[in-house]
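Researcher: Let's do a round of design. I'm pasting the structure tokens now; please hold your answer until I've finished.
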């Protein structure tokens, strides 16, 4: 801990990684790829970020029967997982340093793609689309690749984000034979 009671930089990353691992599904069907955890300390797996709220909204719209369930557990049981291209926050870096961090993250993402072999990769911020595609090519990954605008700041982008995801989720739901509601195990997408 720092003298101000905040976790040190490395401690914060370890804390995020531990939390993220708790929600890793046995089989990753849909891999969401973000740019990096925000410098604010907010984090998808803490259920306190704009990205969390937008993805949850899309899932609840597509699967209303999940409304009463704990979303992060449902997200995991549906074979979904979110990773970041960069392990450390980049939103306070200059343009060049941020771009370099994203390029450096490609190798890590390639290993993640190879390890999990998802059917779908969803890039949740358009600016890293090239980095994600480069990582996919490195490991000859093939599947559905979707690039969306970051939904956390502007209502318009959130609407576009949710509208793009809902039909995709419903299509995958119908292929998988449905999703069960509260009290039962959800079927993977």
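Researcher: That's everything. Go ahead.
Model: Designed sequence:
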């Amino acid at each position: 801990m720092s003298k101000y009671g905040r976790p040190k930089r490395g401690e914060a990353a370890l804390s995020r990684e531990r939390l993220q691992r708790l929600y890793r599904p046995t089989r990753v069907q849909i891999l969401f790829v973000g740019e990096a955890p925000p410098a604010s300390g907010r984090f998808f797996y803490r259920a306190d970020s704009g990205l969390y709220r937008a993805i949850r909204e899309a899932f609840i719209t597509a699967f209303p029967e999940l409304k009463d369930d704990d979303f992060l557990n449902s997200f995991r049981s549906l074979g979904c997982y979110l990773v970041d291209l960069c392990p450390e926050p980049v939103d306070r870096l200059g343009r060049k340093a941020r771009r370099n961090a994203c390029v450096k993250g490609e190798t890590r993402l390639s290993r993640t793609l190879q390890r999990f072999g998802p059917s779908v990769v969803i890039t949740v911020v358009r600016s890293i689309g090239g980095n994600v595609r480069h990582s996919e090519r490195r490991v000859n990954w093939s599947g559905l690749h979707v690039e969306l605008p970051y939904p956390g700041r502007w209502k318009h982008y959130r609407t576009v984000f949710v509208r793009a995801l809902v039909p995709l989720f419903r299509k995958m739901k119908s292929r998988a034979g449905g999703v069960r509601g509260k009290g039962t195990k959800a079927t993977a997408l």
